[in-house]
Structure formats: structure tokens, C-alpha cells
Amino acid sequence: MSDFWKSYDITALEYGEGYQCYPLYGKIHRIELALSLLFIVGVALWYKRSGAKLRRKILVGVTGLLLLDEAALLLGMALTGQWNWSYLPLHLCSINVFVCLYNTLFDQNWCKEELYALCIPGAALALLCPSWLDVPSWWTLINLHSISIHALLVLYPVLLVVGGYRPSVRRVPQVLAFLFGSALPIYFLNKPLCTNFYFLNNPYGNVITTAFTNLLGEKYYILGFLPAIAAALALMYLPWVAAARRK
């Protein structure tokens, strides 16, 4: 099998546990981050200067790319005989693909709020601290998929804000209800499937959850999500609160 198709499991067998295809913030990672930023800013500027009909087409196009991106990974793993339960789209970012789809179809404020408050910081953090580096090289389906889909997930809610949507602190309870309401069943689903969706089953393979483990221990690392979520929400809403007070 070509290295391009190899999954985490095959890489671990061939290269050993702990292998990473490139270092965090090394040359390749910096190039990927720069290209992602240029893509997001470029499409956002295009969207801002477009009329209503073209904006709609751009939003539909981004949604279509998200669905195709997710489908490409699932098909790639299935057709090469590497699919397992861990490839179900049940990580928060994968679930947000379908939140984007729902919003594109039905234009719901709760979707926009959740995507702004959780999807932007979550997908941006995934790009900054990737957990998918344990593949043979940067030129693999998993790495290319992970970079592109997280860039698209940052882009979609950015377009909503550029297009005039204004986040509201009053909707934060809805955001938290969505987050914890989805995390609870997934926590219990992780056990029988031996998966790690939302990184709730173990802290390994992710820089952030590893840091929580170093601070709180493996038994209580999940508690680290609470101040992290609070900090993310504060970061996302303080500019809007400050702007409202100035007015």
C-alpha cells in the first residue's frame, strides 16, 4: 500500500509508537498554517465584497467542500480496508460539518452561534496543535484531509460574521447545552467502541489533553476542559461585549 493511504494504525506498526511525520511548528507545519490563513482571509474578503446571490453560492460551496472532504476520508479508509469505529464523524469538528449543513439549509441562529463560539476556536486550535501527525508523511490522505477540513471549518463561521451575523452572549447557554448535550452520549459510546471522540476516553495523541494530564493527572484530565472552554468563550465574546459598551 502506498504511504498516501496509510492510517494511524499501520503507521504505528511500521514506524513505531510516537512517530510524527513532521515537528510541531516546523517548516511544513508553518507552511500549512500560512496557506490555511491565506485561504480563509482570501475567501472572506471575496465574500465580503460579493452580493447576496454570490454569497449564498459561496456558502453552499464551502458546505459542499466540507461534506466531500469528510466523505473522502471515510471512503479512503473503507476502500483500503482500514476503516474502524474511530473514523465515525463523531469528533466535535466532524459534528460541526453537519451543523454547517443544517445552517446552510435552514439558516438557524443557534447553529451560527455554536459555530462561532465552538467551531472557530476548536478548529483553529486543531490546526495550531494537530493530533494527526502520526502518519507516514505530510502527503497522506489523513494529513491533507485534516488540514483542509479544519481550515474550512474556521472559514464557514468567519463568513457568517463577515456577512453580518453578530454573536450574542445571551445565546451562550444554548452553545453550552449543545456542547455538553452532545459530549455526554459520546462519553458513554467511547467505551464499547474503544474510541476517543471528543478526547474523553483518554488524553493521549493530543497536545492540549496531554497538558491537562500533566497538570491534573490522567484520572482528572477531563476537568481541564472546563477552564479551557471558559477561556475560549471569553476570548470569543469579550470583543463584542466591549464594542457594545462603547456604543
TrEMBL record:
Keyword Transmembrane helix appears in the UniProt entry: yes
Keywords: Membrane, Transmembrane, Transmembrane helix
Sequence intervals crossing the membrane: 28-47, 59-79, 85-103, 115-133, 139-163, 175-200, 220-243
Protein name per its UniProtKB record: TIGR02206 family membrane protein
Gene source species: Faecalibacterium hattorii
